[in-house]
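TA notes, week 10

Several of you asked for a full example with nothing omitted. So below is the full record: structure tokens for the whole chain, then the designed sequence directly under it. When grading your own attempts, check the secondary structure regions first.
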């Protein structure tokens, strides 16, 4: 099964993101917008894992998350990867809790490497993806939008199963791991 670990974002913030998407959806831009229910902050993509590996991973995640305290977070600002001249991904940034998310991601990298999950080759940049750009288009007017979310408490890490479908990915919560 294809899986990843993520942090959930409160509904009011997702509603604000949906409003930004709504402003640009009718423009026929070559952008695949992320569905409302799929908006989250990915902390670690696991790739394909089998059921035998899953049980060992979940046991380790329970232990790690039990020692990692809940923290405050807040989404703010829009950006893109890799650059505005060659945009591929549109994202909302994190301005509060970014350091804690990086610590969590680092702890997860170390833990999951012991279970044979490949390490990321780049530094973790906390963000929420809201659009994937399929062909070059100007996004200046999108990036000029203001976005400031409301502070929220991150109190769990979520293991999601991801099924790729022609109409877009479908995510299913497999397990939540409370922090603290």
């Amino acid at each position: 099964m294809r899986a990843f670990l993520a942090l959930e974002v409160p509904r009011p913030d997702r509603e604000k993101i949906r409003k930004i998407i709504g402003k640009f959806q009718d423009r026929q831009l070559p952008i695949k917008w992320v569905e409302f229910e799929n908006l989250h902050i990915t902390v670690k993509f696991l790739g394909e894992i089998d059921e035998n590996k899953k049980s060992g991973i979940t046991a380790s995640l329970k232990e790690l998350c039990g020692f990692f305290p809940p923290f405050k977070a807040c989404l703010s600002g829009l950006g893109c990867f890799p650059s505005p001249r060659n945009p591929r991904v549109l994202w909302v940034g994190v301005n509060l809790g970014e350091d804690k998310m990086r610590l969590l991601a680092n702890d997860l990298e170390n833990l999951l490497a012991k279970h044979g999950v490949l390490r990321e080759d780049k530094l973790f940049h906390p963000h929420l993806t809201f659009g994937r750009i399929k062909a070059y288009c100007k996004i200046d007017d999108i990036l000029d939008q203001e976005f400031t979310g409301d502070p929220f408490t991150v109190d769990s890490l979520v293991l999601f199963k991801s099924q790729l479908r022609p109409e877009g990915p479908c995510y299913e919560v497999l397990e939540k791991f409370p922090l603290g």
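Strands lie at 2-8, 31-33, 40-48, 71-83, 86-96, 127-133, 152-154, 156-163, 170-178. Use that as a sanity check on your answer.
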